[in-house]
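lol forgot to send this yesterday, sorry. struct tokens for the thing we talked abt
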């Protein structure tokens, strides 16, 4: 469940990963991506992965070194 304001409005955060598919002049498609390297969740945030017809799974937040390694693997 997303956090809410005192008025009950849902709070949202910008994604640290931006993906955009765009066509080239030759008719092929390219994927452009941008990752913002920053902590975007509170330190005590609970991360939960949910999939249809499955029990939710609790996840741990990656540390800065893990994030750097994953992003470098994606972009290199």
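and heres what i got for the seq, position by position
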């Amino acid at each position: 469940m997303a956090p809410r304001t005192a008025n009950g409005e849902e709070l949202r955060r910008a994604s640290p990963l931006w993906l955009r598919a765009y066509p080239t002049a030759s008719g092929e498609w390219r994927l452009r991506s941008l990752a913002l390297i920053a902590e975007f969740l509170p330190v005590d945030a609970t991360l939960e992965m949910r999939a249809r017809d499955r029990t939710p799974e609790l996840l741990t937040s990656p540390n800065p070194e893990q994030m750097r390694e994953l992003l470098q693997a994606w972009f290199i």
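The two ends are 35 Å apart (CA to CA). anyway ping me if u want another try
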